[in-house]
Amino acid sequence: MRFLPGSREPRVAIVGFGYVGCCLGVTLAEHGLYVTGIDRDARLIAQLEAGRCHIAEPGLAEAMRRLHGTARLTFSTQYDSIEDADVIIIAVGTPIGPDRALVTRQLEEVCASLAPRLRRGQLVMLKSTVAPGTTRDLVRPLLEAGGLVQGEDFGLVFCPERLSEGNALAELRELPIIVGGCDQESTHAATEFWKRALDVPAWEYTSPEVAEIVKLADNWWIDHNIAMANDLARLCDAFGVDVLEVRNGANSLPKGGGHVNILLPSVGVGGYCLTKDPWITWNAASERGVRLATVETIREVNDRMPEYAHETICAELARAGREPAGAKVTVLGAAFKNNTGDLRSTPVKPVVDGLLAAGVEVALHDPLADQAELRALMGVEPSASLDEAVAGTNCLAVLAGHEPFQQLDFAALRKRVASPCLVFDGRAYYARETIEELRRLGFGYRGIGR
Ligand SMILES: NC(=O)c1ccc[n+]([C@@H]2O[C@H](COP(=O)([O-])OP(=O)(O)OC[C@H]3O[C@@H](n4cnc5c(N)ncnc54)[C@H](O)[C@@H]3O)[C@@H](O)[C@H]2O)c1
Q1: Residue 97 clears pLDDT 80, i.e. is over it
Q2: What domains, with CATH codes, occur in the chain?
Q3: N or C: which end of the chain has fewer CB within 10 A?
Q4: Mean pLDDT within 27-41
Q5: Ligand 1 within 6 A of CB of 36
Q6: Ligand 1 in contact with 44 (CB < 6 A)?
Q7: For the CA of 55, the nearest atom of ligand 1
Q8: Do 26 and 60 contact (CB within 8 A), yes or no?
């Protein structure tokens, strides 16, 4: 059976219109496809229908505005429109539980809603990150419970989403798509879809399990590499050298067809993916009797960075003659990543907790984050402005290096802050000239590994 219409553009339904679903849906609609976003969150659907964008992703709000009111992007809390779709993309959340194992509840609920509505000829694509075997052993039987047979009546593939926040829309137009289907016809239909829809390379793999592990391997590598960068930073701190200088030299070595590519150290690893995907990998391996010791180590190394950050801030304050208890620290940037407002599993939260536990008065400023969410997460009232946040502070802790914090006018700030005042660089990676300028102005400077 053919799983894509040959003569016209396929109609798409995306189930789960959160971060990934929304970025993908908007991109497909901008390429001229008819897309329906289905989400169980009625508040979210009402916002989307009103043309409001709930995600701080560069270019997304503008694209939503362009599509608002057109038939190319519609929304629903109901599954009724599933029947009209040729391609159904599943992008619901796949968190981990307290035992760090994958929680498939959202996925199971979606499959239960889809199963009775599936019709012959449809292609189902799973995009949510899952443990190996999930597409074949969980999703397929749940969908077949509706009476249709996978491979004969409907197609099923795993197609991981590999975009990175802050650059999502550009990456969706460029990144090669990994496709692993439960059968060859499904795989071919999916690669044809991505080539037709976005004109991106789509690479066929022999099974969904390969594609599932590709996604996990990517995030395992990134988390692993950052853990090394973080340990390297601590080594550089111990020897009083700048980790960015070391990294610059080390990364010049050709290796394996590319170069050594040590990523950047920081105040910690956060976000929705890197904090859970290595554990999904670890758990899946452990269920088959394989122990992935590297995952245990990298997670521990990266999870310890917030503690390293708040201890370093307190130690530097004390060294400059200002006891941490009663000192004011201004946290600039609370998101887990530069230039996003995403607070999910942000490492800034344990830094703030550590500072508060040390008796520090914490001021918070992140213009990209949702202020109500920020308040609820940190238990601290966010400052209304940068000016208010920095007034009389003993430390400017730049923990997410958003664009405005790269352009700070330190000469003007000098008049607003206390003396002594430390600039703590958790993720801004200020250039040497900026650091020299800071010292000239009378600021102290410390970074992670700097
Ligand atoms: N955030 C990222 O940068 C990123 C990148 C690559 C892959 N992923 C993976 O993509 C998946 C989605 O991530 P996200 O960040 O978009 O999550 P999200 O939490 O932002 O979005 C998930 C959406 O699914 C909806 N949902 C849950 N159950 C539903 C149901 N039964 N029916 C309809 N809608 C339902 C939720 O209301 C929510 O809006 C995850 O598996 C994640 O690991 C995320």
Answers
A1: yes
A2: 12-209 (3.40.50.720), 216-450 (3.40.50.720)
A3: N
A4: 97
A5: no
A6: yes
A7: 20
A8: yes
